[in-house]
Amino acid sequence: MNIVVIGLGSMGRRRIRLMKGMKLELNIVGVDSNIERCENVKTDFNIECCASLETAEMIMKFDCAFICTSPLAHADLINLCLSHGYHVFTEINLVADKYKQNVELANERGLTLFLSSTPLYKSEIQFIDKRLKENGKSCIYQYHVGQYLPDWHPWDNLKDFFVSNKTTNGCRELLAIELPWVQKVFGRIKKVTVIKKHMLSLGLEFPDTYVMQLEHESGNIGSFLVDIVSRQAVRQLEVINENIYIKWNGTPDSLYEKDIGTGLLVQVQKDKYDHEQGYAEFINEYAYFKEIEEFFEVIKGKMSIYDFEMDMETLKIIDEIEG
Question: What is the pTM of this model?
Fold first, then answer.
């Protein structure tokens, strides 16, 4: 399979690194207008890199495209790649530009249009989902996700990083990452109550803290704190009802469930843990690997567990939260 990866920042590099580790015959070409990035990726991964898709297409005919640029560039690139007959994997979009148009184009061409939603591929999330469905009773949960925004990519100038843009800001990205699995596990959101604040002294044009109360159609209720303030990267979840107590700190080795009979917290051993240096501890590369595998399976005909129509609903909720 011939693959073009468009955008050679941190996510593009991650996708290339993980695909290079797969036991598949994959021919990969990178595309980025930043010549320095091209040279670094060419050296690090021993692949061809070009400044434009047009130049890359002179090297080989592609089957798939991975779109790993900043979100505001996704819509046009998705459209271009579909027009060229490529199956498309795209990172989270954060805005719904050309959603309907691109979905219709993919359907017309018989092509896969696959949207990243990495937490859905974590076995810890799948375990929690299974346990709650087995239990069958409503639950309470509290969830906190946060990390100081300049620590996300300390190697980049914050002003040049899309998470500092009001339209694609850091809190919006965290919500877009977390809400798909939150709704998968706890049910479709029925009502949201929000308090939002400016806590940082970075001069950002958007709130940096959201404290939310969520009511789900399933009867589950939760408190959800999202911030880009915390100097300690944090992902902490507690799930509670009269028969269940589950706690999770975001990593495969931090998932615990209380054994009601013995009263002991028992570690639940799940996915292997593959952590890339420089990222927060809860960033597990293995989930990104599983997501790429899923994309290739969807191309073969498997149903996707998250798609653009679902994401449209997620983005509507985020718009409501941001007000």
Answer: 0.92
